[in-house]
Amino acid sequence: ERTRVEERPGTFSVLLQRSVLGMRIAVVFPVEHIIFVLTIQLRLASAATSETCDAQASISNYFLHGPDAWKLVQHATKLFCLVYHSNNNETGSEMPCLCARVSFEETLEREAKIFYQFSPNDTELLTGVKPVKMHKTDQAYKHENEIIVKNVVNETKLEEAYRVLYTDYTSCAVLHSVSLGTQVWVHRDVLLDEREVPYLCHLVYELSAQDKRHMVFQWKHCQMRRSFTENIETPASLPTPTRLNKDVHAGHLSI
Fold first, then answer.
1. Whole-number Å distance between alpha carbons of 90 and 32
2. Are residues 45 and 65 in contact, defined by beta-carbon separation less than 8 angstroms?
3. Are residues 108 and 203 in the same domain?
4. Which residues does the annotated region (Disordered) include (predicted)?
5. Cα 239 to the center of its chain, rounded Å
């Protein structure tokens, strides 16, 4: 039996394929009708196999097309903002109204630099840039499904993997990392126009995080802060990357 979520014109549906008496039968259900089944399957799988695999890996298996981390990076030419995440509840106070986009990409190397910014208050803007590269967790995936972020902490180089659980590449993305847990990033334009997380990103997050949520993007405050209103889009001509210097704030890298 195989269950996958398939995008179709104007809607999302679930394709259920099952072999019956040697014949393969395919039935399409609206995604709303399968939510309960997915939830039970995911939680049972997580409980039964927690020592050998993680629940996040199983989520992407339900989708017809596996995630493409490099495609997501290439589409992030406008700000995506971190709305909420499941681990480390201090992030919202340390880096409130956090948004990020591509500042430079090297297509042949499949590497990039991600520009990020956050605003602790109405007047302050703190910025930084981090180099990233792509990684494939399993050769069964067609594309790289992780974004490896290169950090520098106290002059020590560290890497952290952000696995792409689900994305539609244009409105939102659900990622998972050790430090933040499961996280939802939403395109600035979507937040501006709709003021909510797109349905499928919300669904995938709920299945993965199971009601754990720490808010980072508070609409009441963030909509007017500089991290949401400035440096919105990558320049048409991407600049040559410059040498990075340490920022005086919290060990972040600055442009």
1. 34
2. no
3. yes
4. 234-255
5. 25
The per-residue pLDDT for range 219-246, each reduced to its tens digit, is 999 999 999 999 999 887 554 443 333 3
Compute CA distances 108 → 102, 103, 105, 113, 115, whole Å: 16, 16, 9, 14, 20
Q: What is the pLDDT of residues 143-156, one digit of tens each?
A: 999 999 998 778 88
Q: Give me the domain span that covers residue 90.
A: 69-254
Q: Are 22 and 128 in contact (CB under 8 A)?
A: no
The CA distances from residue 153 to 96, 100, 156, in Å, are 20, 20, 5
* Residue where the block lists tokens 């007017």: 224
Separation in Å, CA 56 to CA 4, 53, 72, 208 = 15, 9, 18, 6
**Which residues are bridge partners to 166 per DSSP?**
174
How many Å separate Cα 250 from the centre of its chain?
23
Count structural domains, the chain: 2
Calpha distance 185→173 (Å, rounded): 5
Q: What is the largest CA-CA distance in the chain?
A: 68
Q: How many CB atoms lie within 10 A of CB 187?
A: 24
Query: What are residue 196's phi and psi, to 5 degrees?
Result: -155, 160
> DSSP H helical segments within the chain, as ranges?
35-48, 55-60, 69-75, 91-94, 188-194, 199-209, 219-222, 226-229
**Entry field: residues in the chain:** 255
| Total-model pTM | 0.72
Tokens of 253: 């890298």
Instruction: Report angle CA 220, 223, 225 to the nearest 5 degrees.
Output: 110
